[in-house]
Design a protein that fits this description.
This protein is 76% helix and 4% strand. By secondary structure, it is mainly alpha-helical. It has one domain. Strand 3 and strand 4 form a beta hairpin. Helix 3 packs antiparallel against helix 4 and helix 3 packs across helix 11. The chain is globular, with a radius of gyration of 23 Å. The mean pLDDT is 90.
């Protein structure tokens, strides 16, 4: 079993590298053709940014494979030799948190390079070192606090129930729903400053749009996204009474009122079509499959690694191998997601106007320097949204 897992993980990484190389070659060829949607200058810049990002991801994937073999060959045994407590629950918590922390630190150079070099050079990142360090410190505190509680809960479930993976799935699923519910009101404000939308005319128009869709919101807010990044975005956050309309300040500055309403109309389309419920269900299904697989790992796998089958090792293998399961399942969920995006565009066009939505999509692509074309394999395995070219064609725009 150990050898099979090694082969599967290696194939997973090699497939990711193959897709990235195919995408690089695709973008290089597309760059030589006449630009579409973007201006000639921005089209070339978007292509260069994507190519450079993909090259970094290839190196990251090779590094990921190296780390995986390092962990399973000697890393877990070395960590087991360092961490030892009489209390098994405490040992499990410290072991899992140590594993995640080491992996995070080892991957930090890539993140720092992308944020402070790549994104700075292409005019995206606006974050300074102080803000970055504060964000990292806040994230670390939340991770150690809530991560410890989740690990403790799962270890207790493992020791209390024979088919622990069923109860573990239910517990984690409920926790994720709870986090989604409190995210816009309690978690997001830790990192961003939320301000009630000052433009009374726009605020009234948004509230009328929400009322028409039958959605009750706890407010319309803008956040200081430009403090960290220049990209444009907006989202509906929260569940139940905690739902908020959140607009990036970068979006409010770049889009007209009608374009902004069309974008929000698209997001409301997800609400009208119950895509949020569908996404929760599909995410839950994927998570259920993962818990089933990792709840029934054979002892021979742990013997191959050279460690005992313990709660902490089960949880670590879950963290280490779950991206493989997600990657395998993504083509199905991605296809459904892209279908939902087209339907949301239809609603956004109905309430906000086809022309306004099309203009907004073009501005989003242009300001975010998003290359508008992708290789088929990239779409199949990574894209939850259709390409902007397909979306504009559906809206009747000749690209």
């Amino acid at each position: 079993m150990f050898e099979i897992v090694l082969v599967i993980y290696a194939l997973y990484v090699l497939m990711k590298i193959y897709i990235s190389i195919a995408e690089v070659n695709f973008v290089k060829l597309a760059k030589k053709r006449a630009p579409i949607i973007l201006s000639s200058e921005n089209y070339a810049v978007a292509a260069d940014y994507k190519i450079e990002s993909l090259k970094i991801s290839i190196v990251e994937s090779l590094y990921e494979l190296l780390l995986f073999f390092g962990w399973v060959s000697f890393g877990f045994k070395a960590l087991s030799g360092v961490i030892g407590f009489e209390n098994q629950t405490l040992e499990a918590i410290v072991f899992v948190l140590s594993f995640v922390s080491i992996n995070y630190i080892l991957g930090l150079p890539f993140e720092i390079y992308k944020v402070f070099n790549l994104d700075k050079r292409y005019g995206f990142s606006t974050i300074d070192v102080k803000t970055y360090l504060i964000d990292q410190a806040k994230g670390a505190v939340m991770f150690f606090l809530f991560g410890s509680l989740v690990i403790w809960l799962l270890v207790w479930i493992m020791g209390s129930f024979e088919n622990w993976w069923i109860y573990g799935f239910l517990a984690v699923f409920v926790i994720i729903l709870f986090i989604n519910m409190i995210y816009p009101t309690l978690i997001a404000p830790i990192f961003n400053k939320f301000t009630i939308l000052e433009d009374s005319e726009l605020k009234e128009a948004i509230e009328n749009l929400l009322k028409k869709a039958g959605l009750k919101s706890s407010g319309v807010f803008t956040i200081d996204a430009s403090k960290r990044d220049k990209r444009l975005n907006a989202y509906f956050g929260g569940l139940g009474k905690s739902k908020r309309v959140v607009l990036y300040d970068t979006l409010v500055k770049k889009l007209t009122k009608d374009e902004l309403l069309a974008v929000l109309g698209h997001e409301l389309g997800h609400f009208k079509h119950k895509d949020i419920v569908k996404n929760i269900f599909s995410s839950g299904l994927m998570m259920f499959v993962m818990f089933y697989l990792f709840g029934n790992l054979p002892t021979s796998l742990f013997e191959g690694i050279g460690v005992e089958k313990s709660p902490q090792m089960v949880l670590i293998l879950f963290l280490l191998l779950s991206p493989v399961v997600s990657f395998i399942m993504m083509p199905i969920f991605g296809l459904l997601s892209r279908h939902n995006e087209f339907k949301a565009d239809e609603y956004g066009a109905d309430v906000g106007g086809k022309k306004n939505l099309a203009n907004a999509l073009i501005k989003l692509v242009d300001e975010n320097k998003s290359f508008p074309l992708s290789h088929k394999l990239t779409v199949i395995f990574y894209h939850t949204h259709p390409s902007v070219v397909e979306r504009l064609k559906k809206l009747g725009v000749d690209v």
